[in-house]
């Protein structure tokens, strides 16, 4: 049965073009259209769709305002942003992801350009992932408080218990894709500044957005969060987010220094950056223990890399559980390959990182 899609765009021509693209794929069927967020909100109050393709810049109620209203009313919807405002590094795109949108694509200003192969293919791929994803769940204030209390207890144990002093040098290497920016927001700000390891992140995002993502996380995290630059030396207590459009590698010098190096090979697993390169580059590192974390996302990125890494280094693999994944693809691949040491819900990932690395 085809997935039922709602298209929200203020341009009648663009609505028609987007509907033609979506309906050309037998997996989908556009069943409703709306010219602004206000119309869409009324539809979403009464009906549920498999996915919503949402513009941002619209009259009466824009896309960001609609997402805010959905969150306030606790109306779950699988939303994909398709907007001319989703240009490189756009703050509004990260706002949309923070409010619950699952993924995005930059929509050309010309309807003619929208019909071109590259946009059409990318849009349908993203829509497929979004329409097949888990319906968003709104956390209650009580649940958020409960998670914070649990994490506080873990930190107390880590600070006071000699048993939690873990010898050797460690690194945390995280891979995430669809739903990742929102999921990472439940992990990175909950890691302490005293974390005894550097943290590497490969989040599948285009060039430009990773710098904005790092800046946003840096403002809400005890750790120093930055977009990784060529030649950066890895230091405990710092988070390095891979630059979009390049593959992140860790290079180890003869003196034992670990630095960032970017390579420009073609996409692998259909993505760039690809986490497999990050994991495989750690094979020659001097780290005594590598904590691999694989979170929500479509596909199998991370599996081959961790499999190769585990042949040469001591690894501890944490995969996100199905119930809390937006898309249970990458963690499922890790689990099916027999690589998972732990399968945990999203809200427990930060505490497991702390318990497996220790603090200084």
Structure write-up:
The protein has helices at 12-23, 37-46, 63-72, 91-98, 111-114, 117-131, 141-160, 180-184, 209-218, 275-281, 303-310, 330-336, 346-357; strands at 3-8, 28-34, 51-54, 79-83, 103-106, 170-176, 199-203, 224-227, 238-241, 247-252, 258-263, 289-294, 315-320, 342-344. The protein has 360 residues and is α/β, with parallel strands linked by helices. The strands form 3 sheets. Strands 8-9-7-6-12-13-14 form a 7-stranded parallel beta sheet, sandwiched between helices. The radius of gyration is 21 Å and the shape is globular. The N and C termini lie far apart (54 Å).
Descriptive keywords:
360 residues, alpha/beta, seven-stranded parallel beta sheet, five-stranded parallel beta sheet, 36% helix, globular
Task: Give a summary of the structure in a few sentences.
This protein is an alpha/beta fold and 360 residues long. The protein contains 13 helices and 14 strands. The strands form 3 sheets. Strands 8-9-7-6-12-13-14 form a 7-stranded parallel beta sheet, with helices on both faces. It has a 5-stranded parallel beta sheet with strand order 2-1-3-4-5, with helices on both faces.
């Amino acid at each position: 049965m085809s997935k039922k899609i709602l298209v929200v765009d203020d341009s009648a021509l663009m609505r028609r073009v987007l509907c033609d693209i979506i309906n050309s794929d037998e997996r989908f069927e556009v069943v409703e259209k709306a010219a602004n967020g206000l119309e869409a909100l009324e539809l979403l109050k009464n009906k549920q769709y498999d996915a919503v393709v949402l513009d941002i810049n619209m009259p009466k109620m824009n896309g960001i305002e609609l997402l805010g209203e959905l969150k306030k009313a606790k109306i779950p919807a699988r939303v994909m942003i398709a907007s001319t405002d989703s240009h490189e590094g756009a703050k509004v795109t990260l706002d949309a992801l923070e409010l619950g949108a699952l993924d995005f694509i930059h929509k050309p200003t010309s309807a003619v350009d929208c019909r071109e192969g590259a946009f059409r293919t990318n849009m349908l791929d993203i829509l497929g992932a979004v329409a097949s994803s888990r319906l968003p769940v709104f956390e209650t204030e009580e649940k958020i408080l409960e998670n914070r209390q649990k994490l506080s207890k873990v930190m107390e144990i880590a600070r006071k218990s000699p048993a939690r002093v873990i010898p050797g040098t460690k690194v945390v290497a995280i891979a995430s894709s669809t739903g990742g920016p929102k999921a990472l927001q439940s992990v990175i700000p909950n890691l302490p500044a005293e974390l005894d390891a550097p943290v590497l992140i490969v989040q599948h995002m285009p060039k430009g957005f990773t710098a904005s993502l790092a800046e946003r996380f840096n403002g809400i995290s005890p750790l120093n969060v930055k977009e990784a630059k060529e030649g950066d030396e890895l230091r405990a207590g710092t988070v390095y987010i891979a630059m979009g459009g390049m593959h992140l590698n860790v290079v180890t010098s003869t003196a034992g220094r670990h630095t960032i190096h970017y390579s420009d090979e073609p996409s692998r697993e259909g993505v760039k950056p690809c986490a497999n390169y990050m994991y495989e580059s750690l094979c020659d590192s001097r780290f005594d223990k590598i904590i691999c974390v694989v979170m929500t996302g479509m596909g199998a990125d991370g599996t081959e890399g961790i499999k190769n890494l585990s042949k040469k280094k001591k690894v501890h693999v944490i995969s996100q559980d199905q119930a809390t994944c937006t898309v249970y693809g990458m963690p499922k691949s890790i689990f099916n390959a027999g690589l998972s040491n732990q399968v945990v819900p999203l809200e427990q990932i930060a505490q497991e990182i702390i318990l497996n690395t220790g603090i200084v």
